[in-house]
Amino acid sequence: MSVSVVRRIASPKKALTTVALAAATAGLAMTAAPAHAATPASPSKAQAIAHRMIPDAAQYNAFSHIVKHESNWDVDATNASSGAYGLVQALPGSKMASAGSDWKTNAQTQIKWGLDYMNSRYGSPVGAWNFWQANGWY
């Protein structure tokens, strides 16, 4: 704010209010600035997240085998022919939005959706892996 604008204000109280309002507006503009886009988790980070979410060793190993085959632990893996997306190759990938709006970039959201899918369709990740071994897909 320029000195001439402050001089035009009749009372010191108004000057303080104007300065406070200007500072608050600037502060709001700074906090409203867009955040940096989330970067997808590296394969090792995605595996660590899955390990925390799946403490049972047999279930984790089965889940890990499927994800290794489907996406090689790449959060943004896309199948060029089918359009399947993410760690668990959801088809369409947008199905994972039911687990969170950040489904495109968040390994935890994709893992949650994949676990829910495996549990509801095959009973568990082990059931899904058994099916995958017999059929080459799940």
From TrEMBL:
Residues 1-37 form the signal peptide. Pfam families: SLT. InterPro entries: Lysozyme-like_dom_sf, Transglycosylase_SLT_dom_1. The keyword Signal applies. Residues 60-130 form the Transglycosylase SLT domain. Keywords: Signal. This is Transglycosylase SLT domain-containing protein. The keyword Oxidoreductase does not apply. It comes from Streptomyces vulcanius.
